[in-house]
Amino acid sequence: MAHNSTTPAVQTPKDLTVQKYPPILSAEEEHELAVDLFENHNLDAARKLVLSHMRFVAFIAHGYKGYGLEQEDLIQEGTIGLMKAVKRFNPHKNVRLASYAVYWIRAEIHEFIFKNWKIVKVATTKEQRKLFFKLKKAKSNIYTSLNMEQAEEIAEDLGVRPKDVLDMESRLQFNDVAFEVTDEENSTSPVHYLTDENTKTPEQLALIDDSNKHQQQQLYKALSLLDERSLDILQSRYLKEEKTTLHTLADKYEISAERIRQLENKAMKKLKENLEKQI
After folding, report:
1. Tens digit of pLDDT for each residue in 198-226?
2. Quick one: 104 exposed, middle or buried, by C-beta within 10 A (0-12, 13-18, 19+)?
3. Of 24, 113, 185, 228, which is most buried, counting CB atoms within 10 Å of its CB?
4. CA dihedral defined by 97, 99, 100, 102, rounded to 10 degrees?
5. From start to end of 121-196, where are the E strands?
């Protein structure tokens, strides 16, 4: 039958806490609702699917707390992504909704950050956006400014100048906003109902485990479709504990480091295409 064309409209009340979210659906319950939506366009089924995954959205949104934006807004944007995923979800693909929805949830949150965070307004190109998130991740693990060696390593990874890395880092330092934590006992601030990353609930762990297993299977399948050299480059650059430099791979294949970077980008593009075919 034809796929539903109406996006389910589900509001996320400001005072809706994890404790008030509907319980997570079993695989059977989720499948039954998804089939009802897919084949009968039942919007009540869509609503139940969205609400049952709201704590999953909240958990993902919590990972972006370091950008100085309201957690409530991040959850709202993530919910938009969830609704898009529910609209497109095919229950006959033998994939759990949480696994399928991760991409859509993160995509909406990323776009919201790009539109609203001060520093991101200057990160207009794909390369600048990539650099922005790379630096945010790196800066979360250190408490001092990047040194030249670190800047050169990141610059090599992204194919930009060390100066671009240091410039973006200075903007990050200037604009970073701390996630505010209130001491009010009855506060409705997101920090009070989003658990710490080290104290995940069983429901969160189940969702993460299901998502990770499926994504790992997709990745292995997509990698298996690459040619031998492309596979070796990606494994050396991203899948090994000790990351291989572009120059080391250039020496191995007797070509320039720039050519290795081009092959890496081409392989990543092909990998992405292979992954998208599985959705």
Report:
1. 344 444 555 555 555 566 667 777 888 88
2. buried
3. 113
4. 110
5. none
pLDDT digits (tens, 9 = 90+) for 168-201: 665 555 444 333 333 333 333 333 333 334 344 4
Query: Could you tell me the maximum CA-CA distance found in the chain, to the nearest angstrom?
Result: 64
Nearest Cα to 75, choosing from 87, 63, 86?
A: 63
Q: Selecting from 1.10.260.40, 1.20.120.1810, 3.40.630.30, 3.90.79.10, what CATH number does the domain 18-116 have? A: 1.20.120.1810
CATH number at 201-277: 1.10.10.10
Q: Are 74 and 34 in contact (CB under 8 A)?
A: no
DSSP characters over 32-90: HHHHHHHHH--HHHHHHHHHHTHHHHHHHHHTTGGGSS-HHHHHHHHHHHHHHHHHH--
Tens digits of residue pLDDT in 56-74: 898 888 888 766 678 888 9
Q: What separation in angstroms does the CA of 272 have from each of 55, 76, 106, 260, 266?
A: 28, 27, 16, 18, 10
